[in-house]
Every structure is written in structure tokens, then in C-alpha cells.
């Protein structure tokens, strides 16, 4: 499983951002172009491997969680909500301050209510800043995180989030950058 995803990650270019080795991939950056077969493969694996029978909504994080949530919605027929970077001022909107390895910003949650059963999906967990903030706020809101899934695990982010939130984070691929090359292995 996940052969297309793993192969595409292994072929991803790596660029330097200061001392940070940054892999550039369609799943995490929108460039280079992402083969739709990779998205389909991800959605099929999630649908087959996870019990989604109690899920009310798929929740994706802007920007790069949107295409994952869309693919999963098409695969399952479940509706999806996007946690946005833009404030709308809608009734019940929740603002979340997040800190990542390279920025501090806000995210906004709309159309999630106490008792909603969700699967939270995102592209990469690296520092854990985004997911930690999101999970903590969703718990405060009373949303039930049935599954939290991130396609790519890089660094210690998964462990950081799990320790900070008490939630299990499921990842599909473990990735490291060694000598300017991506090393990726499927976890399923």
C-alpha cells in the first residue's frame, strides 16, 4: 500500500531554508504537480484502514489539508469542513493561535459543534505546533476527535503532539531528509 505516495516523496526535491532541509512535494506544497492517483491512494487507504462509521465530518486544515479532505470526502461521501486562515465572524467561530517552527498565526474554526465526531486530516506534522493548537481547541469545543491523520511524519512532531494532547496521531509515511535526499517509508 501507498507505493505511489512513497515513490513520489522519494523523488521530491529538497531545498535549504537556512539550516532547515525542506522537501517540496505536491501533498505539502502544491508543487510539483500532484498525481491524482496519489490522492486517490491516500483516500482509499484511509477509508479501508480506519473505522469511519461514526464520523460526522472530515476536517482539513488550510491550505494543504484541503485536497486530502476533498479526496476523502469523495471516497466516503462524508461532508468536510476547512479550518481556515481567514476570520469570517460567523456565530460560533473559534480562533486558534498556532506556533510552528517558522511562524505564528491564527486559524479559524467554523461549522463544528460540541459532540461532532470528526476525522482531522493534514499534510505534514513536523514541529507539531499546528496540530497541538488545533487538537487542544477542538477538545475545548467538545468536538470528538475519532481519528487524527497526517499523511507525512517528519521529525519529532508526532511525538510532541501526542505528548501535549494525549491523542494518537496516525501517520501514513515517515520521512527524513538525509544528505539532501528524501528517505520515505510507509507505516501501513
What gyration radius follows from the Cα positions, in whole Å? Answer: 16 Å
CATH architecture: 3-Layer(aba) Sandwich
Sequence stretches where pLDDT stays below 50 over 5 or more residues: none
**Which class do the helix and strand fractions yield?**
alpha/beta
Strand coverage percent: 25-35%
Number of DSSP-assigned strands:
10
Broad shape: globular
Reported by name, the CATH topology is Rossmann fold
Number of domains: 1
The main sheet comes to:
6 strands, mixed
Mean pLDDT across residues: 94
CATH level 1 name: Alpha Beta
Number of helices: 6
Task: Write the element-wise H/E pattern from the N-terminal end onward.
Answer: HEEHHEHEEEEHEHEE
Q: Note the gap between the termini.
A: 7 Å
Strands of the widest sheet, in order across it, are 4-3-7-8-9-10
Tell me roughly what share of residues is in helical segments.
25-40%
Short description:
The chain has 188 residues and is of the alpha/beta class. It has helices spanning 3-10, 26-29, 36-49, 66-76, 129-141, 157-165; strands at residues 14-17, 20-23, 57-61, 80-83, 94-99, 104-109, 117-125, 144-154, 170-178, 181-186.
Amino acid at each position: 500500500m501507498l507505493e505511489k505516495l512513497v515513490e513520489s516523496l522519494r523523488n521530491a526535491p529538497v531545498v535549504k531554508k537556512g539550516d532547515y532541509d525542506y522537501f517540496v512535494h505536491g501533498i505539502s506544497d502544491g508543487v510539483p504537480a500532484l498525481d491524482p492517483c496519489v490522492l486517490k491512494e491516500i483516500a482509499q487507504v484511509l477509508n479501508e484502514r480506519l473505522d469511519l462509521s461514526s464520523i460526522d465530518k472530515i476536517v482539513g486544515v488550510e491550505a494543504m489539508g484541503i485536497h486530502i479532505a476533498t479526496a476523502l470526502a469523495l471516497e466516503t461521501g462524508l461532508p468536510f469542513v476547512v479550518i481556515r486562515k481567514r476570520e469570517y465572524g460567523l456565530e460560533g467561530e473559534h480562533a486558534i493561535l498556532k506556533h510552528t517552527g517558522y511562524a505564528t498565526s491564527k486559524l479559524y474554526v467554523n461549522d463544528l459543534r460540541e459532540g461532532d465526531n470528526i476525522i482531522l486530516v493534514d499534510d505534514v506534522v513536523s514541529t507539531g505546533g499546528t496540530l497541538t493548537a488545533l487538537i487542544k481547541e477542538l477538545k475545548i469545543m467538545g468536538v470528538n476527535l475519532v481519528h487524527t491523520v497526517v499523511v507525512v511524519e517528519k521529525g519529532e512532531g508526532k511525538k510532541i503532539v501526542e505528548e501535549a494532547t494525549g491523542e494518537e496521531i496516525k501517520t501514513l509515511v515517515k520521512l527524513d531528509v538525509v544528505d539532501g535526499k528524501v528517505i520515505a517509508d510507509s507505516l501501513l
